Sequence to fold (162 residues):
Amino acid sequence: MTRIKVNVDGMTYEDDVEPRLLLAHYLRDRLGLTGTPIGCDTSNCGACTVDLDGMSVKSCSVLTVQADGGEVTTVEGLAVGGEWTALQRAFHERHGLQCGYCTPGMIMAARDLLRENPHPTSDEIRQALEGNLCRCTGYQNIVRAVLAASAQDQQVGEEVTA
Ligand code: FES
Ligand code: FES
Fold:
């Protein structure tokens, strides 16, 4: 077992974990943060995407010990005081989801994109989200949602870096 200390969604946790424990399993099984789903467990689908120290990562491809001393943000940590971010609202309003399984990962990856590039083109959005698979929507409304969020640049700029 290895002792780790990690901040997740603003809370600090200290835990003994097996060196082989994946971050996705730590978040879900140890911390109960099941808002981060596991779709493939083989780093293909992107459903498990979270933010680790300012970068979006597929949490099924990161060992929990690699997050030691770090800061993790999951989709559950985005809303402030129960208020969705502009990006979350845009997914809702533009019907950027159907079953919703891919949505946490899509939102976390799109958040990363908007932080780097607040006004992406449709092509840039598709390129940035190419590691995130959706079996329902055909992607069109996901792209529309990210474009809509980027149009509210001031607000999104603040929210995505929060
Ligand atoms: Fe992590 Fe699919 S569950 S990429
Ligand atoms: Fe169902 Fe994307 S909304 S997988």
The chain has six helices and five strands. Residues 103-116 form the longest helix (14 residues).
